[in-house]
């Protein structure tokens, strides 16, 4: 991104922007004692926007959240893990509406100002006695301190091994504006318009249409550029809330500080997206694929995602095998314009293909590089100015083990 127009906030979290608090607790949806219910609360109705999975089978909470967001405002989000509330019919819809109503009642906000999100096992009804009792206990768990953010981050995890957070500060109209995010995602990650579950907060004043536009644009180059296993979930959702309490003039694309704000916002999305890819189920490495020289950015995105999603490429990275043949094969099957005589490929800084011809390289050096925890593959097509970057992870034995026993 060149010279950054924002500053990373060390230790920042979803509650760092002015006006927000969060919390979480264990209500009994998970077999373990890990938190499984959480909420984000804003002290004022916030400008809000969202993007959702494009899977045609969509979980009940998405219907409820879409309805709540019709006026572009939210004041709270209630989230459960351990149960997706997907493929649960009319009862599932009623349960999602009950979650919204109970959260609104206990938080003292309008039902229409509450979003609902769920993640976990598909096809099982929620234990609503546990959920409603848990929601009743959430208000006293909400906090604007680090503990509240920690509890919320833990409450949204399923097979994730680590929480995922990011926070930056941007100067807008001479005032400090903060942008933060929290996400979960480890498996069933191949998003289109969203990722598993992600939540962003900011204290910026921003026009609703501008926030929705920015959210889509940022998603396209971050969350939509990751894959773990090629599966798009029924529950993918990304929600952004802006309290407006920073005191700046309302942001819009013509605002003099729009570029800086958009850059910081996109950076938070990117950090969260990379964290999801790095924490892929069973993963040992983060894999980054950079494509340049494509006929367009859209073409570069399609090629980068094809390479990062290739099971053969992912397996080769796991085995520390510099098998560039799998990379160029993925490039060629992406359905995008490629000149078969002009492709260059690097693994890290090691050139393995120039002009689509093999290059003698140090196999031991490649082996040592591929044993690292971050692997970068670059592809230059020499056809145009299109560029894109995608992120994923290696494919390991543990991925099969984890998913073979997901319900049991």
TrEMBL record:
Active site: 195 (nucleophile)
Family of this protein: Belongs to the ArgJ family.
Protein name: Arginine biosynthesis bifunctional protein ArgJ
Signal sequence range: none
Reaction(s) catalysed (UniProt annotation): L-glutamate + acetyl-CoA = N-acetyl-L-glutamate + CoA + H(+); N(2)-acetyl-L-ornithine + L-glutamate = N-acetyl-L-glutamate + L-ornithine
Source organism superkingdom: Bacteria
NCBIfam families to which the protein is assigned, alphabetical: ArgJ, PRK05388.1
Function: Catalyzes two activities which are involved in the cyclic version of arginine biosynthesis: the synthesis of N-acetylglutamate from glutamate and acetyl-CoA as the acetyl donor, and of ornithine by transacetylation between N(2)-acetylornithine and glutamate.
Compartmental location: Cytoplasm
Site (Cleavage): 194-195
Claim: Transferase is one of the keywords in the record: yes
Keywords: Acyltransferase, Amino-acid biosynthesis, Arginine biosynthesis, Autocatalytic cleavage, Cytoplasm, Multifunctional enzyme, Transferase
Subunit record text: Heterotetramer of two alpha and two beta chains.
Protein species of origin: Paenibacillus albilobatus
GO function term, MF aspect, one: L-glutamate N-acetyltransferase activity
Binding site for substrate: 158, 184, 195, 281, 403, 408
EC number assigned by the record: 2.3.1.35, 2.3.1.1
Annotated GO CC locations: cytoplasm
InterPro entries: Arg_biosynth_ArgJ (IPR002813), ArgJ-like_dom_sf (IPR016117), ArgJ_beta_C (IPR042195)
Any one of the GO BP annotations: L-arginine biosynthetic process
Pathway noted in the entry: Amino-acid biosynthesis; L-arginine biosynthesis; L-ornithine and N-acetyl-L-glutamate from L-glutamate and N(2)-acetyl-L-ornithine (cyclic): step 1/1; Amino-acid biosynthesis; L-arginine biosynthesis; N(2)-acetyl-L-ornithine from L-glutamate: step 1/4
PANTHER family linked to this entry: ARGININE BIOSYNTHESIS BIFUNCTIONAL PROTEIN ARGJ, ARGININE BIOSYNTHESIS BIFUNCTIONAL PROTEIN ARGJ, MITOCHONDRIAL
Site (Involved in the stabilization of negative charge on the oxyanion by the formation of the oxyanion hole): 119-120
